[in-house]
Design a protein that fits this description.
Strand order of the largest sheet: 3-2-4-1-10-9-11-15
Shape: globular
Distance between the termini: 9 Å
Structural class: alpha/beta
Strand content: 15-25%
Largest sheet: 8 strands, antiparallel
Radius of gyration: 25 Å
Oligomer: single chain
Helix content: 25-40%
Number of strands: 27
Bound molecules: 6-O-phosphono-alpha-D-glucopyranose
């Protein structure tokens, strides 16, 4: 998945494109490139690695021109080299692409047989070569592009410019988002409104199958069979403001410190502190009649969903399934109509989660999404949106968005429980009171970083780590392990604590730290037994718990980290923050690229 942008205006295009790419780097940062129209030709600059390399290249060798396209890449087909960096093209056309052209091999063979000469191994180049062949055969650019779109299979957002046509840019959307920006003296294409916001806040979102012909004066939209369609221009809530690190070393560190605000702002949308009750938006269904809920999500967000399932079943007694969106979309389980499909996603753009949303809708489910980007595709395609109010999250590893997701899911479970009559008003008030404590307790966890920093020194030496937890804290153990993998490059496994004896216990020796997420509560004694079992086999158990839990486990643990005492219902949220802090400090000690770890991207818009 990649970020794409295009501009057709009167000011130099390269600085605008570069600035937009900075805001799209969350989509990929393997390589980047820009092409502009120059005279009757096309010029481009491309560089492997982070966007800074392209910026340096442009400084060395500036690129004039007022019409251009840009791309930041997360490699799928072809290594992240300069040669494979977008834009791709021929002397006649230049293309940037987000997605995967699935029939690229077949198209390539066909085009090569007709004499087209490819420069790269990328799937994207087939689009450029296809358009190029049509141009050579005398078609006008718009018709050449339209015919090419008709041959493409897979997912794509595309932007292209044509040599000798400084009044024209063509874009298309099919399974990957593309927005059109309307400026005073310029028009834009971009993967999202965030990229376009510094240039214009007037945005039209395309729909799947749409393609657009953009000139300096405006844009015309067409459906798959070429019929003109209307796409509303709205004012985006995104601002052009640059999100900075505010003096922190990394975005991740800054975003860790934004936990209290993210949780607090999210709670403010979901709770009424005066009545100690949950405020749910008007939902197009009756909770009492919902037979089943199905959650779909990816990555860390999936683990937030896993905790959500636990709460939903425990409190609201609502049968709840959860699946990785990438599995659900192809497993296509049979579903009774009238169920609830819950999609959870920070970006609201993850390709698999979006596909799961569409599957759930097709299967007759009510569609509710929990997203952090209110204008995202998922938000736009949902019946109801429950917003996480975490603000922009730049670090690739999710932090505050994850706890904001937990917050929404916890509130949703309490609200559903009340609506289904499975908890009393008193119990609701007690749970709401526990939730309202979270921002200040999160602040306490952050303020007590020293023991976590010390523990990070032990973790930084580890090659393998086991993370254990039960109930909702099983989800946090999985999240802790994922964080150690993604930003520390440490092999870590998250396990349901009771499962340890069915395999992972064989791994235990003094070299494998065991991180036990074990707050006081109904499952404490059970997890404590698993800590004993690990300790008895020489395992170096590190316990995350509250004061009472730490006191009980101190003697059998290598180390204990004490977190504030809270209602067991909300303890997983605080333990998640501690686990993220541990991963952060471990990553810093190991010297990894914390905000942009290798091979990852923040928003995964390919499947
Ligand atoms: C990527 C990110 C993760 C995130 C996952 C799902 O893998 O690196 O941090 O949890 O995508 O993203 P979403 O935007 O759907 O929450």
């Amino acid at each position: 998945m990649c970020g794409i942008v295009g501009v057709i205006g009167i000011e130099p295009a390269a600085p605008l494109l570069l600035e937009a790419l900075r805001r799209l780097e969350y989509r990929g940062y393997d390589s980047a490139g820009i092409a502009t129209l120059l005279g009757n030709g096309i010029a481009r600059r491309r560089a492997p690695g982070k966007l800074g390399n392209l910026a340096a290249e442009l400084e060395r060798d500036p690129l004039p021109g007022v019409v251009g396209i840009g791309h930041t890449r997360w490699a799928t087909h072809g290594a992240p080299t300069q040669r494979n960096a977008h834009p791709h093209g021929t002397p006649r056309v230049s293309v940037v692409h987000n997605g995967i052209i699935e029939n690229h091999a077949e198209l390539r063979a066909e085009l090569e047989a007709q004499g087209q000469v490819f420069e790269t191994e990328t799937d994207t180049e087939t689009v450029a070569q296809l358009v190029d062949l049509h141009l050579q055969n005398g078609l006008e650019p718009v018709e050449a592009a339209r015919r090419a779109f008709g041959r493409l299979e897979g997912a794509y957002a595309l932007a292209m410019v044509f040599a000798g046509h400084p009044e024209l840019m063509v874009g298309a959307q099919h399974g990957a988002p593309l927005a059109v920006g309307f400026g005073e003296t310029a028009m834009y294409l971009g993967s999202d409104s965030l990229a376009l916001a510094p240039m214009t806040r007037r945005i039209a979102y395309m729909q799947d199958g749409d393609w657009t012909v953009v000139t300096r004066e405006g844009a015309a939209f067409f459906g798959p069979s070429g019929q003109a369609v209307n796409r509303e221009v709205r004012l985006t809530v995104q601002t052009g403001a640059v999100v900075g690190k505010d003096g922190y070393r990394h975005f991740m560190e800054k975003e860790l410190h934004e936990h209290p605000a993210a949780i607090g702002q999210t709670l403010a949308r979901m709770l009424d502190p005066a009545t100690r009750s949950v405020l749910l938006p008007t939902l197009p269904f009756d909770w009492a009649k919902v037979p089943r809920m199905t959650i779909a999500a990816c990555g860390s967000t999936y683990f937030a969903g896993l905790a959500g399932r636990h709460w939903m079943e425990e409190l609201a007694r609502l049968p709840t399934d959860i699946d990785y969106a990438s599995e659900l979309r192809y497993r296509k389980p049979p579903m009774s109509k009238g169920g609830l499909g819950l999609l959870v996603s920070q970006s609201g753009e993850t390709a698999d989660t979006l596909a799961a949303l569409r599957f759930l809708r097709g299967a007759g489910q009510h569609v509710v999404s929990v997203v952090n980007v209110p204008e995202s595709t998922m938000a736009r395609e949902s019946d109801v949106v429950l917003e996480t109010v975490a603000g922009p999250e730049i670090g690739v590893a999710s932090t505050k968005a994850f706890t904001a997701q937990l917050t929404v899911l916890a509130c949703l479970a309490v609200g559903a429980a009340r609506a289904r009559g499975t908890i009393s008003a008193e119990r609701e008030a007690a749970l709401v009171a526990a939730l309202l404590e979270l921002p200040s307790k999160a602040g306490e966890v952050l303020a007590n970083a020293a023991p976590i920093q010390r523990l990070a020194e032990r973790m930084a030496e580890a090659r393998d780590v086991l993370c254990l937890g039960r109930g909702a804290c099983h989800a946090i153990a999985l999240e802790a392990a994922l964080k150690l993998k993604e930003i520390c490059y440490i092999h870590a496994e998250g396990y349901a604590a009771g499962e340890m004896k069915h395999g992972p216990i064989a791994l235990i020796d003094r070299q494998v730290p065991i991180l036990a997420i074990v707050p006081s509560g109904p499952l404490f004694e059970k997890t404590a037994s698993n800590v004993q079992e690990a300790g008895a086999r020489g395992g170096q158990v590190v316990v995350l718990s509250d004061a009472a839990g730490c006191a009980k486990l101190q003697s059998i643990s290598a180390e204990v980290i004490e977190l504030p005492t809270v209602d067991p219902f909300v303890a997983p949220v605080l333990h998640a923050i501690a686990a993220q802090m541990l991963a952060y400090h471990t990553a810093v000690l190991r010297g990894t690229d914390v905000d942009q770890p290798r091979n990852l991207a923040k928003s995964v818009t390919v499947e």
